[in-house]
Amino acid sequence: MNDYTFDEISIGQKESFESTVTEEMLDAFRKLTGDVNPLHASEAYAKEHGYDGRVAYGMLTASFMSALAGVYMPGERSLIKETSIKFVKPVYPGDTVFVEGEVVDKNDTFNMIVLKVTMKNQRGEKVLRGKMDIMVRG
After folding, report:
1. Nearest alpha carbon to residue 65 among 135, 29, 122, 119
2. 36-62: string of b/e by CB count within 10 Å (b at 16+)?
3. Residue 38 lies in a domain
4. Which of 22, 51, 55, 134 is buried most deeply by CB count within 10 Å?
5. What distance in Å separates the CA atoms of residue 41 and residue 54, rounded to the nearest whole number?
6. Is residue 29 one of the residues assigned to a domain?
7. Do the domain assignments include residue 74?
8. What is the mean pLDDT of residues 113-137?
9. How does DSSP classify residue 53?
10. Handedness of CA 27, 118, 76, 111 (dihedral sign)
């Protein structure tokens, strides 16, 4: 886990990690949230509706943003204040998601950073883009 202070962070700085989405993740997310939408739960239903198989929950994919902030940038000192997310392509079980955050702004008054987030699958296709405003706690 990283532990960047506000002063140690610079515009243009990047952090990244990867995670492979599994069937078990989808099942656990369904149990945690109660979202039983068949697009996420039934391979047959998803295929009948034009997808390659069960589609990972968008918010499951977006939850990697929490790990990006809380573990990598800034890490231990993070407190996410705001996020914006655009889901670009579906993510499927078995996909490896490459998560990258780049610091695009800093606010010295509030010890806040703005992190531009990009997620791509193993084929290099963008699956999510977003932005996070993160307070870097003292």
Report:
1. 119
2. eeeebbebeebeeeeeeebbbbeebbb
3. no
4. 134
5. 6
6. no
7. yes
8. 98
9. S
10. negative
CATH number at residue 94: 3.10.129.10
* 32 part of a folded domain: no
Report the percent of the chain where pLDDT is more than 90. 100
Cβ burial of 116 (10 Å; 0-12, 13-18, 19+) is: middle
Looking up tokens 């990258």, which residue turns up? Answer: 100
Residue 112 corresponds to which tokens in the numbers above?
Answer: 């806040």
Give the number of domains in the chain. Answer: 1
How confident is the model over 62-96, as pLDDT tens digits?
999 999 999 999 999 999 999 999 999 999 999 99
| Mean of pLDDT values over 9-32 | 97
> Tokens 């990598």 label which residue?
72
Domain of 122, in residue numbers: 6-22+57-136
